[in-house]
């Protein structure tokens, strides 16, 4: 019964957003980007080069911050943003709920940038020790899949723990109060908890998940304005190259925006994957495995086809971008 209720609530998270109205057709004069407190979009926003480049074409860029991937995809669903970045799992639940979204690019794996944490004084020493415990996580987020995989690897299932679904800020408060036994979270919240709370990691994503970051757009916007999407991905890729070449400079730039110390920010910056690219068949297959896993767990109601929601830019649009 709990599995059925969980499935309905996860899918409802996105279906409710769709019920407020269809995705509105975005205007070419504006690109509305949804971002989270991590990742390359934060770096791109700080750099300001995208705004300058698109301003030459009369396109204004606006930014909206979201606490997590599921909430960001709700924004895409209701038409409040045109483009955003999330972890692996939110797009699966969004697709299951009928969201009209397209995967447009991905970042290389970053499995160490998410983990299952316990308080520094906890007696828990392995994932197997989580049986019967309360675990905080953001429902439908990338760490949801990490928890499922980690439990499976330890011979358990999601039904062996009590999930406590909270966004990052509320989850941290519950973690500090001792209201939950563990917290599954991503950077920079992960790095902050490790350094500020001396939280201990039971397991990160290594050997379990890729933790790809995916860039998504509403289908209407991507199809009508492929040149804008291509420019955006080019700029994201450029910021990634800057980050790999000089992480300290990027840290100094981004730390004030995140409200975190340079020491915490540097850890998160270095653990991130950089190099946005169009999705490869191997990445599509990996994402399909995630979708199939949640279908088997009955957390989504039907089998999905990830390859059906992959964006392929028109050749003409690519050529025009290359000439700019």
Automatic annotation (TrEMBL):
Where is the signal peptide, in residue numbers?
A: 1-28
Give the InterPro entries listed for this entry. Answer: ABC_SsuA_sub-bd, Solute-binding_3/MltF_N, SsuA/THI5
User: What stretches pass through the bilayer?
Assistant: none
Q: Which CDD domains match?
A: PBP2_SsuA
Query: Is Oxidoreductase a UniProt keyword of this protein?
Result: no
Q: Tell me yes or no: is Cell inner membrane among this UniProt entry's keywords.
A: no
Q: What does this protein do?
A: Part of a binding-protein-dependent transport system for aliphatic sulfonates. Putative binding protein.
Q: Any idea what this protein is called?
A: Putative aliphatic sulfonates-binding protein
Sequence similarity: Belongs to the bacterial solute-binding protein SsuA/TauA family.
UniProt keywords, alphabetically:
Signal, Transport
Give the matching SMART domains: PBPb (SM00062)
Q: Where does the Solute-binding protein family 3/N-terminal domain lie?
A: 30-242
Any Pfam family from its record, for instance, is NMT1
Q: Could you tell me one molecular function GO term of this UniProt entry?
A: ATPase-coupled transmembrane transporter activity
Give its localization: Periplasm
What are the annotated GO cellular component locations? membrane; periplasmic space
Domain of life of the native organism: Bacteria
């Amino acid at each position: 019964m709990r599995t059925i209720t969980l499935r309905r609530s996860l899918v409802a998270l996105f279906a409710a957003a769709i019920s407020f109205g269809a995705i509105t057709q975005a205007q070419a004069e504006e690109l509305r980007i949804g971002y989270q407190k991590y990742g390359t979009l934060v770096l791109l926003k700080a750099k300001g080069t995208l705004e300058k480049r698109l301003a030459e074409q009369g396109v204004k860029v606006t930014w909206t911050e979201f606490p997590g991937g599921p909430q960001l995809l709700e924004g895409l669903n209701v038409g409040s943003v045109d483009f955003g970045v999330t972890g692996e799992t939110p797009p699966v639940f969004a697709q299951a709920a009928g969201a009209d979204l397209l995967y447009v690019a991905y970042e290389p794996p970053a499995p160490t940038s998410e983990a299952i944490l316990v308080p520094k004084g906890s007696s828990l020493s392995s994932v197997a020790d989580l049986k019967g415990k309360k675990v905080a996580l953001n429902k439908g987020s990338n760490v949801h899949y990490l928890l499922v995989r980690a439990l499976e690897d330890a011979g358990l299932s999601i039904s062996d723990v009590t999930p406590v679904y909270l966004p990052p800020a509320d989850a941290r408060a519950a973690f500090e109060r001792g209201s939950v036994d563990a917290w599954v979270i991503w950077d920079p919240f992960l790095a902050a908890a490790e350094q500020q709370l001396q939280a201990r990691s039971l397991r990160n994503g290594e050997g379990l998940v890729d933790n790809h970051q995916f860039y998504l757009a509403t289908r209407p916007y991507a199809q009508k304005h492929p040149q804008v999407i291509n420019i955006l991905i080019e700029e994201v890729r450029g910021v990634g190259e800057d980050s790999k070449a000089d992480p300290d400079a990027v840290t100094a730039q981004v730390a004030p925006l995140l409200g975190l110390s340079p020491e915490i920010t540097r850890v998160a910056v270095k653990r991130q994957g950089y190099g946005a690219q169009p999705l490869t068949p191997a990445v599509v297959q990996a994402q399909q495995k995630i979708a199939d896993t949640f279908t088997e767990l009955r957390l989504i109601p039907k089998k999905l086809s990830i390859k059906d929601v992959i964006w392929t830019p028109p050749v003409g649009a690519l050529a025009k971008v290359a000439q700019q």
